[in-house]
């Protein structure tokens, strides 16, 4: 049921039976921009931003904001769109910071994360005036002491806390458990000691608390538990240390639907659930309402993305498997090879045809594990056909590499019936730009 596949991902099939993205025929996008091609549906991207923005305002009031976790897809255009829609931007490296600044996002709207920021990165952030540094560990306090003194400035910080909560998601993308490289542990006293240290640092202003428990989480309960733990901690440090938490940042992590087995809550339900827990818990502790932040990445950009591929070699091994090789692979989407991520696909020119075959959609890297979809349900496909893989907006382009010296694909924004290139396809010469000949 291919039309159902496109429809379930929120995309139309036109009268010719072709997949449409942002009102543009997928075949036209492939013809105009080449393949492999990362396409972002602009309206979907904006609608996801607005759903966060509007539901937060409705459920918590004006004292709340969504922040786009740019690492999901960090380009100038995606940072600009998020900011145009009223979101802040979260950056986790000097390169992401640089991208967001070049995108024209004011530094005060940037939130600087990272579990091992370098001295140069901290300095870049403070010199440009990032809104908040999210301090991850004691080492970062040392860096802040050095840099604030050198620049004769102050830093507004949040503390990243690790609440000891294990959501049901892949181990590689869990971040909130006790055994995590991220953040100050709440269960072992590290978080409390960090509050004490921050409140004694003359050049640091402790604004609030942050936690991010993991990614592709489809269950609301761990989010509720984490939010409740942060508010309880805020009450404790008020009572014991007379510290006021002005800001509460609950992180991101909401999952999206890659395959039918994924059943994530809607963005609006996720936001309401968290705003509800926070409000109730604040009331119980008689705490005044801090500013509330959420930091979604995947759920902003993931479902807006479709990757288009051209089929090359088709190899049938009787009684075993058919490999349909495409012109992309782990160099432009490492998620399947990295942690067994699953996707659905359609044949873009026959997006309404029944899926009769089960095939493996393989990439072209020199790794047997470079298979994008092990069991794709497709109509019969041949060399030259165009395949469309859904849900590829997040952690694909941003994780891409030049393995095998494949140039990274272009990124195109599709909306209002036209496609606009926002990241150009790399050329062979781009690949050699930093090589130095003997
Ligand atoms: C990655 C990350 C996010 C976004 O996670 P998603 O799963 O993409 O929503 C938010 N906050 C922090 C600190 C992160 O590291």
Structure report:
There is one protein chain. With 438 residues, the chain is an alpha/beta fold. It folds into 2 domains: 2-34 and 304-432, Lyase, Ornithine Decarboxylase, Chain A, domain 1; 42-301, TIM Barrel, CATH 3.20.20.10. It has 13 helices and 21 strands. The protein has helices at residues 2-8, 26-33, 42-60, 76-84, 94-102, 119-128, 138-151, 190-200, 220-241, 267-285, 298-301, 335-339, 428-432; strands at 12-13, 19-21, 24-25, 37-41, 64-69, 88-91, 110-112, 132-135, 155-162, 184-185, 204-210, 247-249, 291-294, 305-317, 321-326, 345-347, 357-362, 371-378, 386-390, 410-415, 418-423. Strands 4, 14, 15, 16, 17, 18, 19, 20 and 21 form a 9-stranded mixed sheet that branches. An 8-stranded parallel barrel has the order 5-6-7-8-9-11-12-13, surrounded by 7 helices. A hairpin with a 2-residue loop joins strand 20 and strand 21 (418-423). The longest helix has 22 residues, at 220-241. The protein starts with a helix and ends in a 6-residue tail after the last helix. 51% of the residues are buried. The model has no long low-confidence stretch (mean pLDDT 96). Residues 69, 71-72, 90, 92, 113, 212, 215, 251-254, 295-299 line the site of pyridoxal-5'-phosphate (PLP).
